[in-house]
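Cross-posting from the modeling subforum.

Setting up a comparison between two proteins and wanted a second pair of eyes on the formatting. Protein 1 (sequence, then structure tokens):
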Amino acid sequence: MATFLYKLGRLSFRRRHLVALIWVALLALAGAGAAGAPAAGNSSFSIPGTEAQKAFDLLEQRFPGTSADGATARVVFKAPGGEKMTDPGNKATVQETVKELSDGSEVAAVTDPYRAKAVSKDGTVAYAQVSYKVSGMELDDAAKDALEDSAQHAREAGLTVEIGGDALQAVPHTGSSEVIGIAVAAVVLVITFGSLVAAGLPLLTALIGVGIGVSTITALAGALDLGSTTSILAMMIGLAVGIDYALFIVSRYRAELAEGREREEAAGRAVGTAGSAVVFAGLTVVIALVGLAVVNIPMLTKMGVAAAGTVAIAVLIALTMVPALLGYAGRRVRPMGEKGRLPGRAKGRDESDGQAGPAKPNLGTRWASFVVRRPLAVLLLGVVGLGAAAVPAADLELGLPDDGSQPTSTTQRRAYDLLSEGFGPGFNGPLMVVVDAKGSDDPEAAFTAVGDEIKGLKDVVTVTPPAPNKAGDTATITVIPGSKPSSPSTENLVHGIRDAGAGIKADTDANVLVTGSTAMNIDVSQKLNDALVPYLVLVVGLAFLLLIVVFRSILVPLKAALGFLLSVLAALGAVVAVFQWGWLSGLMGVEQTGPVMSMMPIFMVGVVFGLAMDYEVFLVTRMREAYVHGEKPAQAVVTGFRHGARVVTAAAVIMMAVFAGFIGSSESMVKMIGFGLAVAVLFDAFVVRMAIVPAVLALLGRRAWWLPRWLDRALPNVDVEGEGLRAASGGDDGDRELVRV
């Protein structure tokens, strides 16, 4: 592989005009497609195989034309102090508002609170339900404006009016903090390279790669049903890995220049060595993201595949466009350690560049030497520290967001609170029971039996009469729980109804299915929990095999996987502490604490594993490179840090800055993922890879690089260390003996 990438790097350097033209053309093509595409909304949410989804699909078949997937709005009215909603003046205002709400081509139906008995027992709160023919993201701005205008007219008449439901949902935005993250990345690159040109290359190539990826996602959003969150997450991950991959190749290029090589040769060798690490690091990220398909949640699968595509583009750009731009930069990108204005007139090169000089060892060398001297103490301190950070994860509560998780400043949240106040906490999470009596001899008796059975269950406040379809073979029953949607009592009620349905099936041949947003959330959480172990086995197993090929070792990949588990558990603990317990919530812009997003753990497992393997590959390949060329195991650890610690540190800080930039998003899921990934990179890069990994390698010694001979012969030689390049150049890299491991 190293030889092929070496040739690719030299070719890209020589044919830089063609390479640059190809990538710019791809960017323009993707941009044109995105410009002509409709704005992305929320992708359709389906959970194949769950009871809630089966019930929803049945409703689509048996109740055609009811717009089951259409937007809804609950316009909630509250009377002024001392008055009731049944007072003549307030009643007239509400009825006038209902009349206004009924206007509009996209409105399917509006319920009158007084006819639908949607007035609280104390008479202070009432609500009107508005159903639309299209989804919330497809709703015209005119329809949304009409909804808000109607509410405002009622407010002017003296009522308190708030609007809940998904009719007013907006496309999420990331905020200005994303730009701050990129600015921090730029500062880190300038400090690392000491050159504006060298620092600008990773930023430019990452932005081009993300531009192509996100524009392609936008262009295909309508055809593939991709939501707006998909492009935001692809941008987040694509920016982070795009900058990092280019950073490693530019850094290796400068090191090759410092060895005295010509620029084209240095570009080829940089791509042949660091590029090999980029390919395998990118593969681990792609495996982790595409592996999300195991969960069988279409929305999650699309998010993973889209982000994986952006990562693949980042890898290709790092291997081709980075050497092309290095050709354009010429002498403006100086050799590592170069202080003079011309190449070859180096001053003050230190041993971090592989050159002899009077400068003292760099920080990476000093830190690695300390770890090698005190490996057990460093290992214990790192493990205990991450274990302490992971403690809050034991209190992890999972759920999907509803209006109750919105900030109190929003009308959706205020409507949610008014409904809870007037009708009870369970009113915001009604359960829809679908009774399929097509195979029953007496459907009406089956409908009645289901309603009577549900009334006898614990935590049930209201059971509406069955509402059959035109054919009379299917009916819906609405059940109002006594507890809020996310409570364990409501989850127990859902399971209780489903358990009771088995007995009803035996007596009446009618199938009982429970759906609705609350039941869907419960089924999603269960599906994600069930998929977590198979997903871990698949992703970690494939990446473990990949790392065995890269490092030609059993214990090094095993150590990498265990270190990842520590990182992800500690990161989940931090997420629970901030988003569930409320620690530092004000600093993070978390206005409302609550359960952690159901898909957060499995998404973090996928993304963090891929990113963790990035640093493992970049750092440990340098150690293996030193070891196979004759250095002792402990010295190889120090050499790996001398060459790679500064660059890995810069890469980690950049990735943290990019992820942290998305904490400013208006979308709670994006905010949570941005924070979780930033913390995970902090733990993995600076605790696991910089402390635990060298400590374990120092303790294992030569055993770390042990591989059974039969497996060594069976595995392909991918030559990540670039040994083929040294052989082709006649061994001009020195007379170090190659050690077989």
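Protein 2 (same layout):
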Amino acid sequence: MLHSKTKWKINDHIEEHMHWNDIKASVPPIIKDLLIQRGITNEQEALQFLSPNIDQLHHPEGFDAIEKAAARVHQAIENKEKILVFGDYDADGVSSTTVLLHALEELEASCDFYIPNRFTEGYGPNEEAFRVAAQNGYSLIITVDTGIASVHEAELANELGIDLIITDHHEPQETLPNAFAIIHPKCSPNYPFKELAGVGVAFKFAQYILGYFPEHLLDLVAIGTIADLVPLVGENRIFAYYGLKKLANTKRAGLMALKQQCKLTNEVTEEDVGFLIGPRLNAVGRLQDADLAVELLLADNEEVALELAERIDQLNQKRQQIVSEIVTEVEEMVDLQTTTGIIVIANKGWNEGVLGIVASRLVRKYDRPAIVLAINEETGTAKGSARSIPAFDLFQNCMKVKDLFVRFGGHAQAAGMTLELDKVSELRTALNHLVMDQLTEEDFKQELEISKQLAVTDMSESLIQEIGKLAPFGMGNPKPRFLIQQVPVDARQLGNNKKHLKLQFKQADTVVEGIGFGLGELYSFITPKTEVSVAGELRINEWNGFKKLQIVMEDIQINDWQLFDHRGKKNVDLQSFKGFESSAVLANDIDNVRKDLGSNIPVISYDSDLDALQKVNTLFIVDLPPALPMLGDYLTQLSPVNIHVCFQLEESMYMARFPSREDFKWYYAQIWKQKTIDLKQDIRKIMAAKKWTKNDIIFMSKVFSELEFVKIDNGVVTFMPTSNKKDLHESWTYHQRLTRAKVEETLYYSTYEQLKDWVGQFIDLEGSKEEKANGLQAIH
């Protein structure tokens, strides 16, 4: 049995929603199930989802204060006032800044942009920046992707005579800023869609002040929307869908240079934005001020754009190196013995711009929320980022201890914060209590949501193409994962260091390859002819003109008991199979076993008290048992689900010649006839006459002695007259040799299938089935 690393949840459809009679859309049943899982249950919703239309976007007039804000912008343009677009330093922030600047420049506004430096100013509007803006003659500041928590800065703007328009999408806090206008979907009861990214809100405002739908800005909107990980449903899906098409054929010099740096040609997917374009734009603000990223997006000269893209790529490489170094340091500092609910770790010298990435790595590795802080000794503060697990809402829980922060903002799963250095320990304690009060042990395990179980024959190239119609995938519309449960026809490790795992599944004429990147270590845990459950995404792998169906395996589990065959193998590293579950060794030579495996694993001898033994998960059987029923008793009592047979055999009883009854008769007749045989003198004659071995003769002599047919004294065998008839089986030596031969035949010389059938008699299959039921959970 192999437990999955994550908690699997089968997102099975709800039966009462299965009313597709009204739906005439010609899509496969599997696609219909996937649509149901996304809350789509009728013809109109299905068509809108599969074929997004720009006409489905809501008009921006639904935003509170947008008319007032637009009037103020037009007034500023008419009066030739200076307008400052105040953005954020991530990909959403720089794309939002660029979108609004394009709209303002089209209206011939006198405008510029400002993005605070992450290291010297921190997140969001700040007093110094507003004072400098006032000194430079700006009378209108428009924030994009920031500002909803800037209560103090809004009051300062009023004092400075600056009108402040806030456009943002982050969570509003208890007190809203006293700004000239706030354009925010969650502060607008009449606006139907609440999950826009910052760039989505900026685009809506741009659309309103321009008076038409600026389709040419959708490539920028797609970047910010996808990179910010907002749910790709509703309006965000439409923005991403059309924005990616626009991005594929963009004429912007900056984006063309960035695509070239990412080695992207015509088609651009959401994964390209999420893993190539977004990280490069984010890298700028993580290491320096983000102006360079905005300049790239605004660039209209090809040569300049290529130079900017090259500089940004270099920054991204530097960012990757810094992250790797900090992750190594952090992992050395994390003490899992003292860490219970949440990891809160701080150190000086860390680049605070990459700590969100570091925190994400910790969450993935340790399955718990993580806060990573950089210490500034000069200011006496710690500043950094937090990431969480699905079961713990960071924003809501941090708001319960908001008095500990100098600054705080974010979402349920991600947040940024600054606090005084002496508050770090208090924060760790407070959040740890909240985590432990709210979560169970199961909540800490990462979830893997699985859309549906498929048979291998369900899979085809056309199905994968149909699944592609659900793209773009992202938050709220995850790429479907599927479950396969089947015995693989082949298993092997791939890569120079055998880091990857390849399984092959075949059913009828359909062949599907399972590729598990980084799962190579699981190869040793997969036994022959055992059903394996794999979960992952489907794809077509095309190479050298050949197309193969693949499932990219994210996790694996085996729900039945397993037999691992190490018979006759030397230097088997049993330590690698111990894992974290209960284990025991069944052996004769206890001291040698403890020396090989260490003292932290229980060793059981064949003369142990059965009733006193507890159940174990993994059992290593090192030595052959004295008898088969004895091993059966131990298997029944211990109830292992992983059994490793590690028998070594130096001298075989089964393979050695066993004297026949005719051999016993002839030898007995010789003893009866001669009355005395001195084996020291006569054994070689007997060996030559009968082609027996020395051991054959000694064995038969010992059997006769135990049956009291002869007496043996100093190698002399003397006939003993007796009227009692006795069977050879009454001899302990004879019986033991037969028993040993049967043990060897059954346990050592059997095929793998024969051995598994024999062991299977004693395995609690009902327990295995219970484990299997607990391993897969359906979402209803």
